Amino acid sequence: MPELPEVETTRRGIEPLIQGKTVTAVAVREKRLRWPVSPQLERLVGAQIVAVRRRAKYLLLDSERGSAIIHLGMSGSLRVVAIGIAPQRHDHVDIAFENGTCLRLRDPRRFGAVLWSRDPLQHKLLRSLGPEPFDPLFDGVYLHARARGRKIAVKSLLMDSRVVVGVGNIYASEALHAAGIHPRRPAGRISRPRYQRLSDAVREILARAIGFGGTTLRDFSNAQGKPGYFRHELAVYDRAGQPCPNCGSAIRQETIGQRSTYYCSRCQR
C-alpha cells in the first residue's frame, strides 16, 4: 500500500501540472472502488484547482467549490497524461483540464477512493487523525504522553493513525531499528529520551524515503510512472535472515498486529 512518502511523492509530481488549471470534464469509468466514487465530483467541472495537499495518506485537490479526496488504496497511482491517450483496463477516473491533459487514476485492485467534501479536514475519514510526523507537535514528549500506561507494542502505537499519521508498516520497522527500540516493547515502558530518538528517526526515515521517491515493493509508481527507490535503502524491512547493517546479526521477522515486522534482536532492546 502506498504510504506517506509515496503519497507525498505523488503530490509533488502532480501539483505543478494541475494547480491553477481549470477542470473541463470528469469521466468515471468504474465507480465501484473501496467506496463508490462520489457523484459530487462533477462539481469540479468549471472550477480551478487552487491547491494540491496531502493529509496523512489522502490527497486533497482543492477548488473554490470543495475538494476531491483521493486515496490510492493498495495499488492505485495517479498520472497526468494527454486526454487523447486511451484509458487502459484499470484506469477508472479522469479529471480533464483546459490544457488538454487529464489526471488519471489507475487502481487494479479497486481499494482506492475518490470522494468529495466542502471541508475535507472535517470529513469523517480525516477529522480524527493524529498529527503529521513533520508537525512540531510530534516529538518525544508527545509520544511519551500518548504511550503512558499503555501495554500495546510500541510498533502498534506508532502505526495508530490517531497517534501519528503516515507511519505505515515499512517505515515503522525502519524507524524502530534506527532508534534501537524493539518493536514488541510495551509502549508505556519506554523513556521520554528514547521516544525523542524514535520521533527523530521517524522524521529522518520518512524524509529520506520522500527524497528517493518512496518505496516500491510491488505496485507503486509515481506520477511519472517510475518506481520508488528507497527499497534499496531499507535496513530491516523484508530482509529476514540477512545481516543487520549495524551489527551483522541476522534480521528476524515476526507478526505484530497482523503485520510482518522486521528487527535486529541485538541492536533493538
- Main CATH class of the largest domain: Mainly Alpha
The residue fraction in helices comes out at: 10-25%
CATH-defined topology of the largest domain: Helicase, Ruva Protein, domain 3
How many domains, in number, for the residues?
2
Whole-angstrom Rg: 20 Å
Number of strands: 10
pLDDT average, as an integer? Answer: 92
The topology string of helices and strands comes to: HEEEEEEEEHHHHEE
Distance between the termini: 28 Å
| Number of distinct helices | 5
Structural class: alpha+beta
Strand line-up of the largest beta sheet = 1-6-7-5
List low-confidence stretches: 216-229
Q: Main sheet?
A: 4 strands, antiparallel
CATH hierarchy: architecture of the largest domain? Orthogonal Bundle
Strand content is: 15-25%
Q: How would you sum up the global shape?
A: elongated
Explain what the structure shows.
This protein is of the alpha+beta class and 269 residues long. It has five helices and ten strands. The protein has two domains: 4-122, N-terminal domain of MutM-like DNA repair proteins, CATH 3.20.190; 140-263, Orthogonal Bundle (Helicase, Ruva Protein, domain 3), CATH 1.10.8. The chain is 22% helix and 21% strand. The protein has a four-stranded antiparallel β-sheet, covered by helices on one side. A four-stranded antiparallel β-sheet has the order 2-3-4-8, with helices on one face. A two-stranded antiparallel ribbon has the order 9-10. Strand 9 (252-256) and strand 10 form a beta hairpin. The longest helix is centred in the last third of the chain and has 20 residues, at 192-211. Residues 216-229 have low confidence and may be disordered.
